[in-house]
Amino acid sequence: MTRQRALILEIMRSTPLHLTADEIFAQARLKMPNIARGTVYRNLRLMEQDREVARLEMPAGPDRYDRTAAPHGHLYCDCCHSLTDIPVVGLVRELEAAIGTEVRSYQLTVHYLCPACRQQQAQ
Ligand SMILES: [Zn+2]
Ligand SMILES: [Zn+2]
Hints:
Elements: H1 3-13, H2 21-31, H3 37-49, E1 54-56, E2 64-66, E3 73-77, E4 83-86, H4 89-99, E5 109-112, H5 115-122
Parallel strand pairs: 3-5
Antiparallel strand pairs: 1-2, 3-4
The structure holds zinc ion (2 copies).
One zinc ion binds near residues 18 and 72.
């Protein structure tokens, strides 16, 4: 593993947020000032191929990266576009029972209004 790749992974694992490639690049540059944008993008693609991280296509805006490729669902706030992990093991088991076979992979994005946005709208 290269130093660049280790740094990218460290940045991603240091936050529960799902960062865009540009956000990862901005943080990487603070620690490694001469790192190139292309290096960050290339490493993210390789890490995605190796299933070390996952790329998430967003309803709006650029793709974001997930620090784990382990299956889980997401809550997506339609107002502030925040993304939160949710465990969906029980849901997947129910689906498997319904379809009578194993679910191999899935992408689940649940749209909602996050607590902060709900509070703001109530005021
Ligand atoms: Zn929100
Ligand atoms: Zn996630």
